[in-house]
Amino acid sequence: MTSTVQAHAIQGERVTLPVRIRDAAVGSAMFAVPARAAQAVIAYSGLDVAEPLPGRAICSLAFVRYADGDLGPYHEFAVAFLVRPPGAEPPGLLGRMRGVGAFIHWLPVNQEFTLEAGRTIWGFPKEIADIPMDLSGRVKRCAVRLGGRTAIEVALRPGLPVPAGTAAPKVDAYSCMDGVTRRTPWTLTPSEVRTRPGGATVMLGDHPVAEELRGLGLDRARPLSSSTVGHLQMVFEGAEEVHR
After folding, report:
1. Which of 3, 65, 102, 109 has the fewest CB atoms below 10 angstroms from its CB?
2. Which helix (H) or strand (E) covers residue 113, if one does?
């Protein structure tokens, strides 16, 4: 059932759909992790991880500085997994990544307005954290701290420029909160993109989230790739509940 609500009252302000992000900067890295461990992490969603290779799932770590958008300026960190569309049969070798979406498992932010909007409108698992970020140097850095305890620190070394694409990528973003799994159509228009194999260093702290990430092997895994986006525009449509 697609949400018919086109406007939401968030902290006394009116937020209308679609929500538009006019400028953001991103750093991200992708890791191959054991599919069984990843599936155990997201089991509460009812979704299945995609396996580009048998027994391996893809976990993405991303940090975002939102500079201009309908939800105001803020910092965000995301732990996400590539998942198969609900109800899809396991594909053959030639179609393993066809139609996959991104399941947002953990999404700390540093501002209350986007926290309430994300949870209310899309069911995104946002929580408040201290997220210091430095995108000005050659190495892009971000950390996430909750209650004075470090969950994760990430450092990215940008790669080579990527030619600008002609079409805006469209992704299905999945979330699960209060036992309800939702799908949100998400359009991205990136520019000033750089990418490379490897290129990311991950340090895990003593917060419980860090222990979960250790269980995926992220404290010792070499990233498949890392990317930075100098300018990113995004559009978030309304969410719909996923029926399994």
Report:
1. 3
2. helix 112-117
Strand partners, 2: 240
Which residues of the chain are modeled with pLDDT < 70? 1-5, 89-98, 165-168, 244
Nearest to 109 by CA among 42, 64, 45, 51: 64
At 244 the pLDDT is 59
Nearest to 16, CA basis, from 70, 68, 67, 73: 70
207 — phi, psi (to 5°)? -80, 150
- Alpha carbons 175 and 170: distance in angstroms, whole number: 16
Radius of gyration of the chain from Cα atoms? 17
123-147 burial string, b = 16+ CB within 10 Å, else e? bbbbeebebebebeeeebbbbbbbe
User: Can you give the pLDDT at residue 98?
Assistant: 64
Residue 223 DSSP code: P
At 163, is the secondary structure helix, strand, or coil? Answer: coil
Strands 170-177 and 225-236: unpaired
Nearest alpha-carbon partner for 45 in 94, 81, 3, 9 = 81
Note whether 196 and 222 are within 8 A (CB): no
Other C-beta atoms within 10 Å of 157: how many? 15
pLDDT for position 4: 55
